[in-house]
Amino acid sequence: PGQQEQHLHLMMQLLRPQDAIRLAVRLESARPRRVRYLLVVRPEEAGAEAETALLGVDFAHEGATRCTLGMVLPLWSDTQVFLDGDG
């Protein structure tokens, strides 16, 4: 597997069995070698939107075989976006 697939597999090992990654975004890092991701995580069962969380995951370098959880931010309510005008 490629590097991103390996990172995704390692990040999934941090989660509970009932959780699923809904979105994973690789972020730019202030440190040149560090690799960072922002994950949107939610349980797979229906009606679990109230348990959605943002996770910050760090890898020490591109080829690292383990990752650390650097941030957990629970999302307490649903967010709606409305575009108005020329937006």
From TrEMBL:
UniProt cross-references to InterPro entries, sorted A to Z: Phosphatase_SSH-like, SSH-N
Molecular function, one GO term: actin binding
GO biological-process terms attached to the record: negative regulation of actin filament polymerization
Domain of life: Eukaryota
Slingshot N-terminal domain mapped to chain residues: 7-87
Protein name: SSH3 phosphatase
